[in-house]
């Protein structure tokens, strides 16, 4: 649409809409700018300073980043976070896909999916309360194992890295349902014709999955995987609720390390540096699914 | 794993067994939250003993100010998403219907607010809230919850409005309607299902928030319910476990019930947000 094709009246009207459009978008932009972007910039600045909340921040360049990578506790936190990323990909996404495939076109599938959906809307702390209780020494799990004659059980929430693994499983308990729901939506949107054609040709089971279902689920899988990676990088609530990152710093994740350095140790600069590091890693991971999300959109 | 050959019976059986395993923690929660503090023992978790659930819930509401937290959290979870949904819809309307110049750039600017972790804004918010008197106020909590709900809301509404033919807008213009009127009387009503979907998703998210409550509030009346539950767990987790479990049940029930009854909207919201 070029300007020449429009009458002066239409042009005036279009300009009027453009002004009006600014009015409609302004509240969103202003709120996001003041409450999200401004703090973001301030944190980035603080990461280059020494600051404890009193007086003024003192410029120290990259010193916080050097200190961060020199700290074995931080390296442990990075490794735990990686374990979270890998574990939550393997278990909740994998089982979620399995449940979706099993309930697909199955009579009563909606009901059979229900048990997996119940934990989904729980808070991380709620999940932590339940599982801390189950996993405590001589708790529900140990009692069940003892009934099967297994008396010598590990200390689930104390021994590292086992404590991180069991917390990942608790998160999986919560997350399978939503992944199953998403994969189900994906499966339901697959057109019938290629499926029927493949079945006529005798494709079944694994071959049907590999040749038809998987390629068609790929875009959705990219989204689910991307979401899972980004969410696991930010893991905080459940760890804070179940082990507080302990014993010592054994089960800390990056989000937890940032919280402790900032709000427990008042190391504002160092805490900000960890936040920046976490953000950079998250952004790189986000690109994986943002590309998917934005490219498939109707361009405006 | 064969999909068609494997009989539906076998698939049902596998799912039923797996489903039962999934329900075990829920069973344990219910059974032990119902035990009175006197009969509760950490050694006998699988067997129900008595039914003191309501007493425990009443007790939990007293401990750690859970009752006050519940009222405040309800306020946050209703007001913040309601504002965010409208602000997000207005942004989507500006970009899609009014064809805002550089609309896509504006959209990315708003949506970009959701891609980084909360850790990136916690400290400055805490600092600024402390200086401006917003720290530990209900207003302050509503403001921050609204802000973090806007990007997703704008994202979904832009997608939704993109699916509406532009001549709907043009027809309304010919009728002489103002842009505000077109937004409020034509676009918003058409989007009601998407608005509800976003509202439910964000209300659940806010109800379940722990971190923002932990950093930006401290009193029982302002502190969100999940943050209060966490405090209760660390204070009374040893001595009064059944009360804490009852508290956990109470805190979890609203979102679980809301989710189970609005699955359709949830799925729709998730789908709108992700395709």
TrEMBL record, chain A:
Q: How does it sit in the membrane?
A: Multi-pass membrane protein
Q: Which InterPro entries match?
A: ABC_transporter_permease (IPR051393), MetI-like (IPR000515), MetI-like_sf (IPR035906)
Asked if Transport is a keyword of the record, the answer is: yes
Specify the signal sequence span. Answer: none
Q: Which residues form the ABC transmembrane type-1 domain?
A: 78-289
CDD domains attached to this UniProt entry: TM_PBP2 (cd06261)
- Membrane-crossing residues? 21-42, 82-104, 116-134, 165-187, 208-233, 268-290
Q: Which keywords, in A-to-Z order, does the entry hold? A: Cell membrane, Membrane, Transmembrane, Transmembrane helix, Transport
Kindly indicate whether the keyword Signal belongs to this entry: no
The GO cellular component terms are: plasma membrane
Please state where this protein is localized.
Cell membrane
Q: Which GO terms describe its biological process?
A: transmembrane transport
Q: Name the family.
A: Belongs to the binding-protein-dependent transport system permease family.
Report the protein name in the record: Carbohydrate ABC transporter membrane protein 1, CUT1 family
UniProtKB/TrEMBL annotation, chain B:
As for membrane topology, the entry says: Multi-pass membrane protein
Q: What is the name listed in the Swiss-Prot or TrEMBL entry for this protein?
A: Carbohydrate ABC transporter membrane protein 2, CUT1 family
UniProt KW Transmembrane keyword: yes
Q: Which InterPro entries match?
A: MetI-like, MetI-like_sf
The cellular location(s) given in this protein's UniProt record come to: Cell membrane
Its Gene Ontology cellular component terms are: plasma membrane
Q: What PROSITE patterns does the entry give? A: ABC_TM1
Which key words tag this protein in UniProt?
Cell membrane, Membrane, Transmembrane, Transmembrane helix, Transport
Family per record:
Belongs to the binding-protein-dependent transport system permease family.
Name the residues that span the membrane: 12-30, 74-97, 104-122, 142-161, 182-207, 241-261
Record domain ABC transmembrane type-1: where = 70-262
This protein's superkingdom?
Answer: Bacteria
What does the entry give for GO biological process? transmembrane transport
């Amino acid at each position: 649409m070029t300007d020449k094709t429009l009458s002066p009246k239409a042009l005036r009207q279009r300009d009027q809409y453009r002004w009006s459009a600014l009015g409609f978008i302004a509240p969103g932009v202003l709120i996001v700018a003041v409450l999200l972007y401004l703090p973001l910039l301030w944190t980035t600045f603080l990461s280059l300073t020494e600051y404890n909340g009193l007086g003024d921040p003192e410029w120290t360049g990259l010193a916080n980043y050097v200190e961060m990578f020199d700290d074995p506790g931080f390296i442990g936190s990075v490794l735990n976070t990686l374990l979270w990323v890998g574990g939550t990909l393997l278990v909740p996404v994998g089982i979620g896909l399995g449940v979706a495939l099993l309930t697909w076109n199955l009579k009563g599938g909606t009901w059979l999916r229900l048990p997996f959906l119940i934990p989904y809307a729980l808070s991380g702390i709620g999940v932590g309360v339940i599982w801390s209780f189950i996993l405590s020494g001589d708790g529900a799990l140990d009692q069940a194992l003892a009934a099967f004659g297994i008396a010598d059980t590990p200390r689930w929430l104390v021994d590292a890295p086992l404590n991180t693994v069991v917390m990942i499983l608790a998160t999986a308990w919560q997350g399978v349902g939503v992944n199953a729901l998403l994969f189900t939506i994906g499966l339901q949107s697959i057109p019938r014709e290629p499926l029927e054609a493949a079945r006529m040709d005798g494709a079944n089971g694994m071959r049907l999955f590999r040749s038809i279902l998987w390629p068609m689920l790929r875009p959705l899988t990219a989204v689910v995987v991307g979401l899972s990676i980004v969410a696991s990088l930010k893991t905080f609530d459940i760890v804070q609720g179940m082990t507080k990152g302990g014993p010592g710093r054994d089960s800390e994740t990056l989000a937890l390390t940032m919280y402790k350095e900032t709000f427990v140790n008042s190391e504002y600069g160092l805490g900000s540096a960890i936040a920046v590091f976490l953000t950079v890693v998250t952004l790189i991971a986000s690109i994986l699914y943002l590309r998917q999300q934005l490219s498939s959109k109707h361009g405006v | 794993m064969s999909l068609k050959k494997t009989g539906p019976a076998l698939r049902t059986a596998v799912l039923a067994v797996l489903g039962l395993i999934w329900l075990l923690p829920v069973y344990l929660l219910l059974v032990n939250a119902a035990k009175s503090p006197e009969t509760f023992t950490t050694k006998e978790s699988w067997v129900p003993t008595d039914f003191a659930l309501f007493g425990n819930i009443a007790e939990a509401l007293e401990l750690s100010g859970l009752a006050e937290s519940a009222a405040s959290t309800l306020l946050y979870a209703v007001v913040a998403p309601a504002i965010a949904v409208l602000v997000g819809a207005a942004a989507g309307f500006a970009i899609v219907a009014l064809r805002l110049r550089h609309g896509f750039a504006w959209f990315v600017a708003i949506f970009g607010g959701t891609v980084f972790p909360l850790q990136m804004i916690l400290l400055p918010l805490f600092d600024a809230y402390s200086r401006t008197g917003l720290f530990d106020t209900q207003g302050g909590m509503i403001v921050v919850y609204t802000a973090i709900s806007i990007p997703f809301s704008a994202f979904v509404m832009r997608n939704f409005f993109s699916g509406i033919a532009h001549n709907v807008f043009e027809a309304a213009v010919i009728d002489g309607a103002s842009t505000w009127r077109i937004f409020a009387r034509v676009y918003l009503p058409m989007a009601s299902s998407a608005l509800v979907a976003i509202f439910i998703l964000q209300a659940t998210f806010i109800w379940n928030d722990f971190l923002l409550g932990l950093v930006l509030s401290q009193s029982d009346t302002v502190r969100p319910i999940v943050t209060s539950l966490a405090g209760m767990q660390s204070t009374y987790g040893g001595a009064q476990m059944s009360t804490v479990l009852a508290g956990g049940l109470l805190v979890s029930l609203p979102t679980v019930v809301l989710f189970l009854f609005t699955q359709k909207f949830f799925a729709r919201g998730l789908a709108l947000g992700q395709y």
